[in-house]
Hints:
Structural class: mainly alpha
Distance between the termini: 47 Å
Number of strands: 0
Shape: elongated
Radius of gyration: 17 Å
Number of domains: 2
Low-confidence stretches: 64-92
Largest sheet: none
Order of helices and strands: HHHHHHHHH
Mean pLDDT: 73
Amino acid sequence: xxxxxxxQGWSKQQAAxxxxxxxxxxxxxxxxxxxxxTTYAAIERVLGRLPGTYQAIADGDEPAAxxxxxxxxxxxxxxxxxxxxxxAASGRGFVLDVDDPREVRIFAITDLPESERIWHILQMxxxxxxxxxxxxxxxxxxATGTG
Length: 147
């Protein structure tokens, strides 16, 4: 976590402010003391890490790879990248939307390989696009998923 913060060029206070937590809580997390999952998630979001990275490190596991997005990118970056995905199995071009709790929950399922988690997220996005298109065209059966 410290290395990620220093890569951003941030002080502990700046990282805490960006994550929306107190400096005391941030210091506890960076020191490896137990903090809430939501605290880890907030820090991971601003330091550009995948959900579950710091908890895995705290548990003694290998850290997850760095997220393909940086702080401040969210739905807009995902929308731009989503259409450019060529190979769902490899996840090339995939960007996790950390602002979508459904995606975060899916990606946190660590007993599934990363490629399967990405596949499930892409399928969910596809269904969402189809529902929006159906709603815009007035086909309420399709929009509600009952068709």
